[in-house]
Amino acid sequence: MAEPLVEIRNLAKHFPITKGIVRRRQVSEIRAVDGIDLTIHSGETLALVGESGCGKSTAGRLILGLLPPTDGAILHQGVDIAAMNPAQLRQMRSRFQMIFQDPFGSLNPRMTVRDLIAEPLKINGYGKAERLEKADALLEAVGLGSQHASRYPHEFSGGQRQRIGIARALALGPDLVVADEPVSALDVSVQAQVINLMQDLQQDLGLTYLFISHDLGIVHHIADRVAVMYLGRIVEVATKAALFASPAHPYTRALLDAIPVSRPDQRRPERALSGDLPDVASVVGGCRFAPRCPFATDRCRTEDPALRDLAAGHSVACHHAEALRADNSKPRI
Amino acid sequence: MALLNISGLTTVFETATGPVGAVDGASFTLEAGEVLGLVGESGSGKSVSAFSILRLINPPGKIIGGRVEFGGRDLLSLAPREMRAVRGKDISMIFQEPLSSLNPVQTIGAQVMEPLLIHTSIGKRKARDRALAMLYRVGIPDAESRFDVYPHQLSGGLRQRVMIALALVCEPKILIADEPTTALDVTIQAQILALLKDLQSELGMAILLITHDLGVIAEVADRVAVMYAGQIVESAPVQAIFDDTAHPYAAALINSIPDRTRQARRLIAVKGNIPDPRHLPPGCRFAPRCGFAQPSCVTTVQKLTAVDPTHATACMRVQAGELPRPIPTLTPELPHG
Amino acid sequence: MKHSMFGKKLKMRLGGGIVIAVILMAIFAPLLAPHDPYDQDLMSRLIPPFWNAQGDWTYPLGTDNFGRDMLSRLIYGSRLSITVGVAAALLACTMGTILGMWAGYSGGYAETAIMRLADAQLAFPDILLAILIVAAVGGSALNLILVLGLSGWTVYARVMYNMTRSIRERPFVEAAVSHGARSAYIIRQHIFPQLIPVLTVVATLQVAQMILQETALSFLGLGLPPPTATWGNMLAEGRDRMWAAPWISNLSGVAIIILVWGINMLGNGLREHLDPNQRGRQ
User: Which of A192, A216, A259 minimises the CB distance to B267?
Assistant: First the structure.
C-alpha cells in the first residue's frame, strides 16, 4: 500500500451555540466533527460519504486548514498543520487545494477566467508572464481552450465553470485535492464529463483525491476506498469493493439500500430506513445511529462503539458488525 | 380516454430580447392510476410544463398555445374561478422545497385543513379529523400532538410528508410531484418514494412525477416522457425506455448514470452543454451533441412520432429505421496520456 | 422593461446635469455673479425679481433687506452647500466603510464594539447631535463638515457591515483563503470591489442629506455666521419678511429643492444602473 499522504488523528470541530447580546455565553455546541481518524494514501481517491449535516464538508475544510480544529492533529506528510500559525499555514497551502461544490459562487463574477485561474499564482508571488502562460496551459488541460481566457464566469455553463474551478485548484501543483460534492450541482449529462476529467487529471498528474459526496453511484465509480460518516463520526472505512459487497455497519447498509435502482427491472421490496436524522446538538451517550438502527440493543444505547479493525483495511464502529456482515450472505448489487 | 390529455402545450417567457420558449409543443397523456415520469435536465421545460397544467405560470411567463384536457374540459380556457376549483381538489401539486412551499406562520394542521375548507362544505371539526387522519396516513409520528406545530419545527423529511398530506387531503385524481425528493437526503428520499407509491395504490390517483433523476424514474414510474430543450423527445413504458431506447438523448442520459453492475474506467459522457434557449438549433435540438447526428438532423424539424403503439420518438433516424433500438452505446473515447 | 430603462437614463442625465451645473456655478461664482454678494446698497432694498411689476433688470432676482443682489448671493451660496455636502459625505463614507468592513470581516469584539456604537448613535437624531456640537464649538465650514461627517458614518457602517459579512461567506473568498491569500488581499481583491456600486449610490444620496442638514443648521443660525451667503442663511433672513418680500426665502428654498432633487435623481438612476439584476438582463 502506498505511504500515507495525510493522517488525521482524533480530529474534532465543535461549533459553539451562543446566547446573549452583550456578554455571549455558550449554551451548547454542535459537534460537527467529533473525533475522527483517517488516513489518505498517496495517489488514491478516498471518498467521504454521508448525508447532509454528517460533518463531511467540515472534515474536508479541516483537512485543508480552512477551519481551525477544536482538537486533534492533521499530518500532511508528517507535518501537523493544526499546530501551525496562519503564516506557516499559508506557506503550506499550495500542497493541498480544493474543488468547490458551487460552480457559480466559487468564482468571483468580476474576474476574467484567466485572472481566476492565475489568482493562486499571483497570491504566491509568481511573475506576470509565468502566470499567464500557466493559466492558458491549465485552460487547455481542462479542455476549455485559451480562447475563453478573457471571458467572465457568467458566460459559461455550470460544467464549464466547474472545469475553471478545477484548473484553478491545480494551478499550484497540489498533491492533495479535496473535492466537495464537485458534480452535485451539475446536470446529469454534464456530470460524467467532469468526473472523467478528474480521473484523467489524476492519472496524468498523480493527484490524490478526497472526494466528498452523498452520491454513492458516483462514489462507486470514482473511489478506491470509502469512509462513511454519520453525525460527526466515521462509522465505516473500507475498500470500495468490500464496502459495497459486504457493508459491516447498519448505516452503510441503509445508505446502499436507499440508492435508487439504475434500471426498472431491479426494483426490490422496500427496505427504507425509518426515522429522521436526529439533531446533531442533541446526541447523548451510546451509538449515534442506535435510535434509527433496526439492530440496536441495550449495549448500543449506552456504550459508544469505537472504530475498530474488522479485517485488513476494513474498520467499522459497530458492536454487532460481525453478525451483520454474516447476514450479508444474500446477493447484493 | 386518458385522464389528462395535453397537446401542443407551448409556454414562453418574455424577456428584453423577445420571447424565449420554455415548453415547445409538448403533448402527452396521463392515464388514471399510473405514474408518468417526466424526466429532463435543467432548462428542459419539465417543471414549466407541470406548472402550465395548473396554470401557475406568472408573468413574464405565458402559455401561448395548446390544450390541457381534463374531464372533458380544456383547463387552459377555464375562467379563473373554475380553475381554482380544480386546483387542490382534482389536481394538486407538491414541490421540491417543502419549507418554502408551506406557510411559515400557520400551523401544519391548519394548512392541511385548508383545502377541505375551501373545496368541501364539511365543518371545521370534520375537516380537522380528516386532516389529522391524513397526517397519520403520510407517516407523521404522533400527528395529534404535532397538529399545532409550525413548519420550521419539523425536519425536511417530515415537511415533505406534510406537503403530501396537504396535496392529498381532498383525494385528488392527479398529483403533480415536482422533484419531490431532490432536496432530501438519500435515506429520507427512499422513504418518501415508498410513501408515494403506497398512497397511489391506496387512493388510486395518477401521479405526474417531474424529476431529473433516472434512478427515481426506474424506481417508481410506469411510463416515461423524456424532455430536452423544451420538447418531448421520447415517450414509452418505463422498461422500454431502458431496454428499447429510441432516442439518442434518452440513451445518453441512461448511460451517464454510473451503473454499479458495469465497472468501466470511464463514464460515458455527453459532449457539449445544454443549449441556450435563445439560440436553439433549427432542427433537432440535441443534434449538436449527438453521436449519431447527420447534417440533415441539424436542419430538419423533427416530430414526436409513434414507432410502436406505446412508444414514440422524435429522432428521425430511428423513425426511418436507420438506427437500431436500443440506441447502441458509443464506445467512450480513450483517456489521453 | 423598455421604458424603465429609458427612465433610468433620463434620471441620470437630468440629475447629473443639475449636479454638474451647480458644481460649475460654485466653481465659477466670481465670473458668473453680476454683483458682489456682500455689497450693501440701502437705496435698493427689497427690490422684487424681474417678473414682478416693480422688478428691475439690474437685479434680475431682486435684492434682500440690505440691498444685496439675490442672484449673486444664490450663486455664492452654492459653494458652501456643495463643499459641505460632498466633503461631509466623503468623510462619513470613508469612516463608515472602513469601520463597517472591519466589523464585518473580523467579527468578534471589533464587530460588537463598532456595531453597538453605530446602534447607539442611530438611536440619537443626527440633527440634534449636530446642533449640540455646533452650538458648543461654533459654526465654520470645517466644523460643519466634521459634525455632519461624524454623524453620518452609521449608514455606511451598517450597509458595508452586512455586505461584507455576506460576501465573506461566499465560496470564492474561501477559495482565495485556500490559495494562501492574506486578509488584506481578500479585502482588496474580493470584498471592496463588490461594495463600490452600493457605496456610490449611498454616497450620492447622502450628499443630498448632508446639504439639507447643512441648510437646516444654517437656518437655525448654527451654520456660518452672517453675512456669509449660504442658502440656509438666506432662508432664515427671508423668514421675517415672508409677506413683504417672499422671494428671499422662496428663491433660496427653490435652489435647495432643485439641487437635492437632482442629486436624488442621479442617485436613484445610478442605483438602477448598477443593480446586478437589471444588468444581467441587458
Answer: A192
